[in-house]
Structures are given as structure tokens and as C-alpha cells.
Amino acid sequence: MAEEVKVLGLWASPFSLRVQIALNLKGLSYDYIEEDLSNKSQLLLQSNPVYKKIPVLIHNGRAICESQIILQYIDETWPGVPLLPRDPYQRAMARFWAAFYDDKLAPTLIGVYRTQGEKQQKAIEELLANVLLLEEALATTFNGGPFFGGESIGFLDVVLGSRAVWLRAAEEIGGVKFIDTQRTPLIYAWLQRFSNVEFVKKSLPEFDKLVAYAYNIRNRSLQSQPKP
User: Of 10, 35, 41, 171, which has fewest CB within 10 angstroms of its CB?
Assistant: First the structure.
């Protein structure tokens, strides 16, 4: 009997994109269901009653939530092309830097397009510093390889790469280059390689559409802030 694999997601969400890239990497077929977060479906609310958020992976009727947990579930359920390294140290490092990205770098990225003035400048400076930490990690911990996963895309590449288009959108909004050939040559080259992998390229949202979406979020965020 064929397996049921569904993804509940949002086209602009890097967290949804992670799941899609991982499934594509494994060569798996799945049904993608676009969610309207202003009018969440009963399927989403029933599948993730705790957080009520996307993405959700539904495998044979059972729901798995939270993108990094979903990636690890995918890797353990469908071995095929591995996402996480076999070496325990490298596996720990992949998880560490994935947590760094979500817990430390992502909030500064969000700050770039949701704030203005001094707050935005602070977010820009912190984001630049965090990207430089990733550059150093790729050079040392990950031996300057073509991917964080070594010779091929792995867990950390999927986690980081899923926000690549959002990082470019933040450059557009902030008027600053966060990744370039001078300051971050390794990250720059890595991002070019990652973005040009065929199954990744097909998954990435259209850039102009995403920038318009980001500006819409920015405008709503600024309008909701109290006047000085």
C-alpha cells in the first residue's frame, strides 16, 4: 500500500521550505497543502493542536510538527540519502549550528524587515556579526567544504538554505549586503551552489513576490508600533 505523505505549509515560510527540500532530497512523493494562516484549516488545528503552526508533516495519518524535528523524522524514516552525518561529533555540530541559526540569527533577520531607525541598524549589525560566525564555522568546523554536509547537501544546509531568499529580501529592505565575495566568500559560494541545485531551485519562492510579501509584513509591523 502506498504511503500517505502530506505537508501543511505556507509558500513564503522557510520552515515549510525545509520540509519540502528534505523530501525532495530523499526523492519522496508528497501532497503539499497550502494553508491560510488567517483562516487555519481544521486539518492544521487537529494536526498541531499545541502550537497551531505550520509546517506539519502527516505520514500515514500521524502528524509530526516543528521543522527541525520533522527533518530528523524524515531522515530516520527514509534513510536513502542521509541528512545528518554519521559521525557523532559532526552530527552534534550540525544540530548546534541549526539551533544557532533559528535561535540567534533568525531573530536579527526578522528585525531587519520589521523595524526602522536605530532598532533596524542594531539588527543589521547583529545579523552581519552572525553571518560572519557562520563563515568561520564553515571554514573550521566544516572544513571549508562545498556544503555544510560535506560533499553533498545535508541537514544544516537545508536549515540554513531555506532562509536564503529571505536573507536576500532583507538585503533589499535594509540596503546592506550580508553575504558577498569579500566578507563571506565561503558562505557566498555555498549559497550559489545550494540555490542552483535543481530540486532546491524548484522549491524556492519567487524573489519579487517574496520581497513584496516582506514589505507588506514590514508595513503592518511598523503601523502597529506605538508612535514615539
Answer: 41
Grid cell, residue 89, equals 561529533
Domains of the chain by range and CATH?
5-77 (3.40.30.10), 88-224 (1.20.1050.10)
Percentage of the residues of the chain whose pLDDT score is greater than 70: 99
Q: What is the mean pLDDT of residues 43-48?
A: 98
**How far are the Cα atoms of 127, 132, 145 from residue 19, in angstroms, in the given order?**
24, 26, 23
pLDDT digits (tens, 9 = 90+) for 118-147: 999 999 999 999 999 999 999 999 999 899
**Grid cell locating 114:** 520589521
Strand boundaries in the chain, DSSP class E: 5-9, 31-34, 56-59, 62-65
Give CA–CA dist 211/182, Å, rounded: 25
Q: Are 90 and 147 in contact (CB under 8 A)?
A: no
Give the strands of the sheet with 62-65, arranged side by side.
31-34, 5-9, 56-59, 62-65
- Determine the pLDDT at residue 79: 85
How many C-beta atoms surround the C-beta of residue 140 within 10 A? Answer: 9
Task: Quote the Cα angle for 49-53-54, to 5°.
Answer: 125
Q: In angstroms, rounded to a whole number, what is the distance separating the alpha carbons of residues 6 and 61?
A: 9
Please check the confidence at residue 159 and state whether its pLDDT lies above 70.
yes
Residues forming a β-bridge with 34: 9
Pick from 167, 80, 84, 182: nearest CA to 130: 167
Cell numbers linked to 128: 552581519
